[in-house]
Amino acid sequence: MADVEQQGRKQSEEFTDESEEEDSEDEPKLKYERLSNGVTEILQKDAASCMTVHDKFLALGTHFGKVFLLDIQGNVTQKFEISSVKINQISLDESGEHVGICSEDGKVQVFGLYTREGFHENFDCPIKVVALHPQFSRSNYKQFVTGGNKLLLYERNWLNRWKMSVLHEGEGSITNIQWRSNLIAWANNVGVKIYDIGTKQRITNVLRDNVSLRPDMYPCSLCWKDNCTLIVGWGTSIKICVVKERNPTEMRDLPSRYVEIVSAFETEFFISGLAPLADQLVTLYFVKENSDHMDEEFRARPRLDIIQPLPESCEEISSDALTVRNFQDNECRDYRLEHSEGESLFYIISPKDIVVAKERDQDDHIDWLLEKKKYEEALMAAEISFKNIKRHDVQKIGMGYINHLVEKGDYDAAARKCQKVLGKNMELWENEVYRFKTIGQLKAISQYLPRGDLRLRPAIYEMILHEFLKTDYEGFATLIREWPGELYNNMAIVQAVNDHLKRDPANRTLLTTLAELYTYDQRYDRALEIYLRLRHKDVYQLIHKHDLFSSIEDKIILLMDFDKEKAVDMLLDNEDKISTDRVVEELADRPELLHVYLHKLFKRDHHKGQKYHEKQIVLYAEYDRPNLLPFLRDSTHCPLEKALEVCQQRNFVEETVFLLSRMGNCRRALQMIMEELEDVDKAIEFAKEQDDAELWEDLISYSIDKPPFITGLLNNIGTHVDPILLIHRIKEGMEIPNLRDSLVKILQDYNLQILLREGCKKILVADSLSLLQKMHRTQMRGVRVDEENICESCHAAILPSDMAKPFSVVVFHCRHMFHKECLPSSGTVSYFNMSVSVCNSI
């Protein structure tokens, strides 16, 4: 609720009812300012009776018959002594060059503010209203109307004389007239009427609802929203009327226009004035309230409401109670509401006070947000409208927000806002850092300090690092990782870390951070020593990034103790920097590590480390037997005798078998399988691989007295050896496990072989027949013989020049042609073979 009070030097102030404002969370829509300067002096001696608003100036009428022209600030620019009694109405045309004035003593004056032309008339009754044609300054529209007991229209004719005509009479005193374009709206004791000056027709009559109210005490308020929309307020009733064109087919004797009431509703209080605001209405109410101590009503402060009209009701948008001077003495008829169409300005006129209501701008919106401590919204609004705000500064609002957050104890949020608010202002940044230091919250602001192109003095960053080093090693380590090293004096921080390490030499966090500081300072050797000591995962990244391979030649064992896989991969990827020989030399005393390195080297390239293959035999045998046999199979540089010796010493049967077979001693290999492994399946598989009849014989001979081996042979040799040979050698009476099943399998295998052979035979016969038929078709084809063909023996044309004579030609399937007489006889075949080239088909 707004409370208008003069306060000091403020030119534009919003006055609110404190008791209601404290509970309200809705932002006011309007702000209020008392019209002062010359107006203050005028109203101290006189009282305002009416006022008209133009975009350029104001015209104020008083109870003592004076008219003052004022600028927008309320300063008097002109004064007219019109009468000795109350000025009832002042009317201005759209240009602001002509003014019409009427008074309670019946005087009417229409004159130009910048010319001497005019109209002066005294009537025998009070003239309540006067209205100029909106285009009065143009010669074709020298018209105005007056309202007393009659509605009179004055027009200046071509003789420069004023012609009067009565537009309406007989319904009491006329209290209000509003002229818009060609439409004149007026109110009398009965209702509101609209007259079309163009067609000279009255087009409507809107009756007033509450006839019990005295028209002189509760006058009608009229306001044109646009050229076709009239807003009528009377008592507690509001109607919105729209002038529309009538369909030509419906005219007959009716006016060409008609009025449709699109909205009609009742209000809680009496209406003293109306004005449009976009699609909403600004209403000035006269309020009467019941006293708590007396039964009678008393006059309360007038209210200025913004409402949203609906077809049969309205929705209140905002409501402000105005404390105008002497409001206790005023009646409903003492208030008026005027508005400026060029700007959203609303003037509340009372006898002793004039208040200007304005739509709140972005500055006012920000003021309200700050007052409500909604700093986040205020800052956002200022950033969005920074080009339009005049009284506020984005950075100052931001600083206020930071101060508010600090006062609340939300230090992290305050520090986060510093990034956005302080921007590139180094002085503000440093002030904030010292403030956070004073309140013991350097940690909160540390992560938001500038660290890019924009930087503070190194001392600021060092101060924060020292603070973390005292209380939070982890936070200190985080800052060292996140901050570029050029922000602070690296040597000073290194010294500080070393001082702390003297008290806690095993602290991993400090050691890791010190290594990072050494890395930035390009003292990589020291950083590497710390990383290796800590077995830190970043050691390999450090070596790669800064090419420290020359520094790790004597630290290979340390690296492999930390992570064998990564270390070996790094060494193999950089053989050009650390040779294989150097690595083998360093790992000589750690054979288990040497094996890991040589094994990976062999996997990458079977030939690269060939000179170490003999050594690898022992390493595989000692540390990695599962990979020994694959190594022996893949290596072409491994000394077989040495390998056999190692395997035999350790009784590695599978590896010994492989080596014996590779060296050609297959019988001994098979013997080891049978005797030591006792694995008939592996023996059979070995015999299959070698495909040697003697091995099969040895295998049968060894197995003939071992029933389980015989079963294995019967099940597997059917496709390699004739099973009859084995069966004949089985002793009578020997019990053989699963003999029946084995014999059935042999028969099944035999049947399968027979079927395969028959199938193959059928395929061969079918293919042979197909090829024979193809050859026959080819040989049965005709062969073209013409004069271009020659005899392959005499090289003459194959056809005679005289085709009438009989001749004989022999043509072979290879397309060689001969005269019959040129073919060799049995006695000259040898000559023919020597002298004539004949293909194999002859």
UniProtKB/TrEMBL annotation:
Any one biological process term the GO annotation gives: endosomal vesicle fusion
**Which Gene3D superfamilies does the entry mention?**
Tetratricopeptide repeat domain (1.25.40.10), YVTN repeat-like/Quinoprotein amine dehydrogenase (2.130.10.10)
Record keywords: Autophagy, Cytoplasm, Cytoplasmic vesicle, Endosome, Golgi apparatus, Lysosome, Membrane, Metal-binding, Protein transport, Transport, Zinc, Zinc-finger
Task: Report each CHCR repeat as a residue range.
Answer: 568-712
Using the record for this protein, list the coiled-coil segments as residue ranges, or answer none.
none
Question: Mind telling me which GO cellular component terms the entry cites?
Answer: clathrin-coated vesicle; cytosol; early endosome membrane; Golgi apparatus; HOPS complex; late endosome membrane; lysosomal membrane
Topology with respect to the bilayer = Peripheral membrane protein
So which domain of life are we looking at? Eukaryota
Domain Vps41 C-terminal RING finger stretches: 789-827
Biased-composition ranges for Basic and acidic residues?
A: 1-13
InterPro entries, per database record: Beta-prop_Vps41, Clathrin_H-chain/VPS_repeat, TPR-like_helical_dom_sf, Vps41, Vps41/Vps8, WD40/YVTN_repeat-like_dom_sf, WD40_repeat_dom_sf, Znf_RING_Vps41
Which Gene Ontology MF annotations are present? zinc ion binding
Q: Name one Pfam family in it.
A: TPR_Vps41
Compartmental location: Cytoplasm, Cytosol; Early endosome membrane; Endosome membrane; Late endosome membrane
Report the residue ranges that make up the Vps41 beta-propeller domain in this protein: 30-359
Instruction: Please list the residue ranges that the record marks as compositionally biased, kind Acidic residues.
Output: 14-26
- Segments carrying the region annotation (Disordered) are 1-30
SUPFAM superfamilies in UniProt = TPR-like, WD40 repeat-like
What this protein is reported to do is described as:
Plays a role in vesicle-mediated protein trafficking to lysosomal compartments including the endocytic membrane transport pathways.
UniProt record similarity statement: Belongs to the VPS41 family.
Which named protein is this? Vacuolar protein sorting-associated protein 41 homolog
What species is this protein from? Gasterosteus aculeatus aculeatus (three-spined stickleback)
